[in-house]
Amino acid sequence: MMDVQAMALWAGSHPLTVWTGGLAIALVAAAAAWAANGPLHTHGARWVAPWAERWGAPQNAGARLLATLCVAALLLLACAQALAAIAQEWAAPTAWALFDDTLAATLRATASVATLTLFANLTHAGDTAVLTVLAVAVAGALWLRRYRLLALGWTAALAGNGLLTRGFKHTFERVRPVHTHEIAVADGFSFPSGHSSSSLVAYGMLAYLALRLLPARWHLPAVLLAVATVFTVGWSRVVLQVHFASDVLAGWLTGGAWLVCCVMVMSGIGHWRRSRAAPVA
Predict the structure, then answer these.
(1) pLDDT tens digits for range 172-198
(2) Cα–Cα separations (whole angstroms), residue 12 to 5, 107, 179, 189
(3) What is the distance, to the nearest Å, from the Cα of residue 125 to the centroid of all Cα atoms in its chain?
(4) Predicted confidence (pLDDT) per residue in 78-126, tens digit
(5) Of 25, 77, 107, 129, most Cβ neighbours within 10 A?
(6) Is the domain defined by 61-277 classed in CATH 1.20.144?
């Protein structure tokens, strides 16, 4: 318990260090995963090629789509169970609850006006108004360029995440941490963080669209920019004391699960449509 409390005290006293250090770790991890993806994809493709050839036949398109929907449903169920497990931690006097409370109290006592103002500006990247404008602009651009499935998938991803996060908030009904400053104000329930989940889905989907539509030289920068934005928005919510750290973690879990489901289902529908259009041998 004391180690956890000491960690929270240090993090709350050094929010800028945590931000820059965490950002560096997240970017290095993302770049390393990107670099490892090539060899893994090559060797994995060789291993699954015979199975994929049979399963990828046009006559199996409906079964593939159904399997994709089932996997997506199981992933969302696992996400809900993970959130319930986290909720049990902060509902009882556990190490995680101590970390949450100590970090919030330390930030409330030590965060300077300059630090709060900085993160109040950074957190706008996850605001509902900003993401709504982004959603309309991207959906319109995709639709006009005749990427209709991507436009619908993009819209469903952002709108669906909002509904999913709101449902979880009203299920767990966690009260937000006390924040006495007026630099940033938030109301409603706290768990999971809507800014964290929404920014992960929005900027994660933008990275996915970049992978689908832009030249290869833009792929890694798009992924790294998305990672940086998501981490920054999440940590800003903690520094501003409008969310506990576990709220942000739950928001990332929610947004990550929903993002994976959306990409899976979009890919599944795309394969299904192409198989229906393919000539029957």
Answers:
(1) 988 898 888 888 888 889 999 999 999
(2) 10, 5, 14, 22
(3) 13
(4) 999 999 998 888 777 788 888 999 999 999 999 999 999 999 999 999 9
(5) 107
(6) yes
